[in-house]
Amino acid sequence: MEPLRWAQRSGLPDGFLNASLRDIPDLFPDPTLVYLHGRGPAVFVSILLHGNEDAGLLAVQDLLRRYPQGQLPRALTLFIGNVEACRSQARFLPHQVDFNRAWPGSETETTPVHLMLEEVCEHVLDEGLFASIDIHNNTGRNPIYGCICSCAPQHVYLASLFSPRIIYFIRPKGVQTQAFMHHCPSLTCECGRPGDKVAARAAADLIDRLLNMDSLERPDHLADDIEVYHTVARIQVRDGYSFGFEPGCDIIFRRDLDALNFVQLPPGEQLGSLSPRMLQTQIEECFLVHDEHGRDVTSDYLTRRDGSVVFQRETMPSMLTRDINVIRQDCLGYLMERFPLQGNRV
Ligand SMILES: [Zn+2]
Question: Which of 122, 168, 222, 235 has the least C-beta neighbours within 10 A?
């Protein structure tokens, strides 16, 4: 098996600063590693691992407009990921695998994309790295937040420079942040929904700061408002029932579902309701909640109270979405718990 074809170049093509997702395959026919010169070690930034998420593109455009002469204070290595999926603005295409599940450490079956990302990793690490950033959007209404795969101090500190909201996760494997965490401080920036320029600017601000910092040596104390959460469960809706946000469905979710993201919810908080014809239906027949070890923990987190579906215990959701396709194909959202850092001292 051969790696997927990919390219390397020094400097960006003309037109990059004003390109939209649809223009990307014309500028970069293959996934491309771009070297922008400055002093080392370099900041590594991957963008467009998902072809429908423009946050990384917007962030890099915003950043580079701040340096019209083109001379960066520190080297910046960019990886432009799933260029083919950008044209149709898809996360990935039917014949492809997810580009953010195929980095070294992946648990999925080896494909040409896996082999390509292994080569990309080797080239990027050859340069020596100051920090690694991977930029994404998500589908629900979420504030900006950072994701780390290790709670070691340098990763928490890097994340705190982006947002006080930090999620620590160990699955899924094969994500960029996990592949680089052994080599430098590594972070995933979640920048709200596609097209959110304010959220993308926060990622640009972070990269700009990294380009101008001399060291990522941490302070003794992190800012007081930092909260690290870890994902404890994933909620799916079982097949066989209709669901949505309007009366008439078997499962009717509350309309402001995604306003619950990053809100600490008390036991009894409502997630939605069941139609009267579902009165005999058990909650486990409608929902499947898995913990991070794959165990069914539905009844630990959800219960029904008369016609309502409510949380059984205190919890904090993230990535709850109102996108029916995402709910059906992926999941409704995740539940988190506070992860203890010793008195914020790291
Ligand atoms: Zn993504």
Answer: 122
What's the DSSP call for residue 5?
P
Q: Which two tokens stand for residue 301?
A: 């987190």
Q: Is the distance from CB of 123 to CB of 35 less than 8 angstroms?
A: no
Q: What is the pLDDT of residue 344?
A: 45
Helix (H) or strand (E) holding 233: strand 227-237
Ligand 1 centroid to Cα of residue 273, in Å, is 30
Q: Say how many Å lie between the CA of residue 92 and the centre of ligand 1.
A: 10
Q: Kindly give the distance from the C-alpha atom of residue 56 to the centroid of ligand 1, in angstroms, as a whole number.
A: 10
Does residue 174 share a domain with residue 38? yes
C-alpha–C-alpha distance, residues 11 and 9, integer Å: 6
CA 192 to chain centre: 9
Q: Could you tell me the distance, in angstroms and rounded to a whole number, from the CA of residue 100 to the centre of ligand 1?
A: 7
CB within 8 Å of 126: residues ≥ 6 apart:
none
Tokens of 40: 């080392």
Same domain, 253 and 317: yes
User: Average pLDDT for consecutive 10-residue bins of the chain (346 residues)?
Assistant: 97 97 98 96 98 98 96 97 96 95 95 98 95 94 94 93 94 94 97 96 98 84 81 94 94 96 96 93 95 93 95 94 90 92 52
Question: Is residue 180 a contact partner of residue 129, using CB atoms and an 8 Å limit?
Answer: yes
DSSP state of 2: P
Q: Report how far residue 210's alpha carbon sits from residue 55's, in angstroms, rounded to the nearest whole number.
A: 18
- In three-state secondary structure terms, 278 is helix
Phi, psi for 273 (deg, rounded to 5) = -140, 165
**How far, in Å, are 300, 302, 303, 335, 337 from residue 313 at the CA level?**
7, 8, 9, 11, 11
Same domain, 214 and 240: no
DSSP assignment of 249-299 equals BSEEE-TTGGGGTT--B-TT-EEEEE-GGGTT--HHHHEEEEETTS-B-HH
In terms of domains, do 103 and 202 share one? yes
| Domain containing residue 280 | 230-336
* Pair (154, 271) in one structural domain: no
Please report the pLDDT score of residue 342 as a whole number.
59
